[in-house]
Every structure is written in C-alpha cells, then in structure tokens.
Amino acid sequence: MTLSLSGLVRILVIGALLAVLAVAGWLYVPTLARLVSPEGRETSGQARIESRSLVYRLNPAAPVRFVFSQPVPSVRILSAPLIELSSWEREARWTYGYRVTLRDGSGSVLASHEVYSSGSHPQKLEQPLPWTRFFRGADGFVATQDQAIIDSGTEIASLEIAPLPSDQGVTAIDVRAYEQRPFLSRGDALAAFRRRSGDEQRDLARANAFPEEFIGDDERANIAINLWRPIGPVGIAGEDYEVGVMYQSALDEAP
Amino acid sequence: MKRLAVVGTGAALLLLAIMAARYADLFPPLDEAESFDRPSAAEFARTRRAFVEVFAGGSEAQLEDLAFARSDSEVLASTRMYTAIGAKCDGRGTYLVRSNKVRTSVLFTAPHRGFDRLTGNLAAQLYDEAGAAGAAWNTAPRRETAECAAFGDLAAEPRHWFTAFALAFAHTHPDARIVQLHGFNRIKRSSGRLQSASVILSDGTEEPGARLLDLSDCLTSAIHPRQVRVFPIDADELGALQNAQGIALREAGFSGFTHIELSLPLRRALLSDDDLRARFGQCFAQ
Predict the structure, then answer these.
(1) Residue boundaries of the structural domains of chain A
(2) Which spans are transmembrane here (chain A) (predicted)?
C-alpha cells in the first residue's frame, strides 16, 4: 500500500489530535470522575482541597432560623445550589429561590422577601473558574454562590430562610448568614483590627489602594466596622437544622 | 441570671470532680515519676511483640518479662491495665486493653496528660463509654516541674513503650484508628481563625486522608456551633507532622493515626456534658 503525502499528513494530524485528546482525558477526566463518584471524594490527595466551609441546608418543611447577637439594620446571605449530576453536565446555569422573613425583637414580622438568585457551572463561565465545590458522599456539585444584602428600616433581631421552587436539577440550597460586628466606638473597631495577626490585617486591607502599613487608623477602623461575621442557626444540629461541610477542590492538578 | 451562671459553673465543676475521682486509680500522680527511661532497640521490639500478643488475646507472659504488671481495673469493665512493676515510676506509661466486648476499634491516647489538662480523663472516659479497644497515657510529666525532675514528651519519642503499644495495635487492627488527644491554648494561636477553633484535626500529613475528613465532617455536626479545623486545609498550625507515633505508624503502613487538638473550653464541656461527649465519641465508631 502506498500513501500520498496528503494522506500521510492527514494520518499524522489525526494521530496528533488523538494523542492530545488522550492526554487531556488522562489529566482531566479521571480527576472529575473521582470527584463525581462518591468514592472519589474520599481523599483530598486525589484533588487538592483548598478550603472547607460550613453551610446550612434549607428545609422546605421548616425554615432555618438565625438570631443576631443584637438587633442589626442589615443582613447578608450567601447561598449556593447543589446540582444533580445529569443537570450539571447538561446545563450551565440554574435559578433558585428562597424566602427571607425578618423579625424584630418581639417576634413580629418586619418584612418577607422572595430572593431569586442564580448559580453557574464554574467551568462554563465566560472566564472559567479553576475549582469545584462539593459535599463529600453526596451526588452532584455546588454551583457558584450568590450574595443578598437586605436592609431594614427597623432593626432586625432574627430571620428565617425557607426554600422556594427552583429550576430542575437543583436538589438543595445551602446558605450562610452574616451580621456586621457591633462596635461601641471607632476605638473599639480599631482595637479589633489590631488584634488580628499581621497576615490577617494585610488580607483584610488588600482591597485598599495602599498596603496595610500605609493606611490610616480611620481606614483600619472602617475595615473592622465593615466586616461581616457568620452566625449559626438556632437549635440543635441534626434536629432543628442540618449543617454541612462544603469542600472546594482545585481542578488544575493532574491526578 | 448571674446566680444561674454561678450555679451552672459550680455544677459543671462538681461533675468534673466526680468524674476525676471515679478514674483516680488510673492516673498515678505525675510528680512521683523518678525517671524517664527509654527502651533499648531490642526491648522496644520485644514490647511491640508482647503487646501484639495481648491484643491478639494471647499470653501476657512476655509483658511480665518486660517488667509490666497487670491489674484489673475496678471502674472499667473487661479492662486489663498494664503499668511498670514496682513502686518507682520510670515514665513508661499506663496501657489499657479491653479483654472482650470491644465495640469501637479505636485506641484513645493522651501522651501529655497533666500538661494538656483533662486529656487523660477524657481518654479514659471515651475509652469507657465507646467500648474502645484500648487506651494509653503518660506517667511522667511532659516538662520539668519543681516537684519532679523526671520528664519527657512521649509524642516526640520514636522508641518508647508508648510507640510500641501503638504499633502493636496497628499490627493487630490495621483498619482501626489511633487517636491522640492533645490540648491547645487558643490565645497562643496566630490567627483569629484558630483562636475561634475548638478542634484542630490532623493525620500528621500535609494531605489529609479520607478517614480524617470523614471524622471532621462528623465532628463538625456533633459539636456545632463549636468550630472544627483541619490541618492544613483551614489550619496552618498544630499539624503533628513530627509526631513520633504518627511517623512510626505511617512507616508501618497504618493510615488511622488521628491527632486531635482540643481547646480547654471544649475539654471541660466534653467532660461535664454527657450528650456532647456521646455525640463526640460516636464519630470515632464510624
């Protein structure tokens, strides 16, 4: 059998393409497969775990209730949907919702908000993100999180969050709630900032135009005042609310 | 309200005192230690073999030859306790082995009891209530004290009876877990994240394995809202990378070494709150 030059080139090109696909598959697919299957999520060595965070699962039967350390004018909620595997592979974005009920110190309802957010597949964004979030032992992945900040004219003592109907593929919604730390004075706020380690101070001030050592005490106090701190739900874990550990793994590593 | 807090604190301290009295016989005073001995290589190997024999339900003769005396605990059921023969304490440690009815394939150990306050009592209590396979702790102080010149750090001794005990258990129970309980001071931690932590978990490596993550997930729910951190994912200190037993166990191919640092408030709470301790202990049964 004789091969023409163009035929040989074609074979070489196809061979090179197959080799590239094989290498990409070897690098990417096993990592993802290990993450997708429950067994695959069992060691951090298979995909480097970057962080773990506590989240609270919304329950359609009973809202999750948070109480603030003292009445606050605003609340911050971070939410993210857990997506089933088939939908995760098929879709790129999911809309989900939850209802936030704000109460004052006497328990009276101040307001009720229906919040609709969307979460995206981190690798299907225009600028893909090199990580995946998941719960160990659970099927599916967690889409990108969204933030809602709700202000209230009357100070809020507690809030309740319950899920609303969401897109197909959304199997659960997990949230975290935050309050701003109350300070009696700017001096207290500055002291709170200075009590942090050097690394933490630099980290907190990184959004500033100048490095931490060049900003003034007023700005340092502002940083402390504007910090959000997480609060936990009321009740007993496992009975009144479900707490979960969400892991974030880097996807940029070979297995 | 203030009166209620005082009564609550008093009740918790009373519970702690009752609990400490119950297990008092298990803990010889640390200031009685007259030396901190280390076995020869041959004695270390013989000790390991002797404990393998005991864990396998065999003879205790080898341990007796190595100057270990057996006594049966009055407060702990089905428990054989091994300590050094004679009145003098040479810092060999105290070793408990459950003779039957093991419900949890775990060793609870406390190499720094006394220095890491309440860890010895906690190891005994967890051993007792979880039906664990064994337990061990130090019989000499970790650091030199005014009362006692003999001292040593078991967790830094690769060749010690304490390490031999752990290796023997790993040999007879390759899928089990060996838990080392420690205490940490929140104030000394460098970051706010660790200052607010109640537990810092590590398996002595830079890449925590599945079993450690399983435990961390379970403990996170069990003691919530207290915070559980995992080295090195969300804690950059107290990783036990140089822990002598951790290194020896990994070299022996054992993956169940678990290093747990507990804050003092949590240690107190675990000893005084039966429900909390039960939830905490159940995580080790998985």
Answers:
(1) 53-181+227-250, 182-226
(2) 7-29
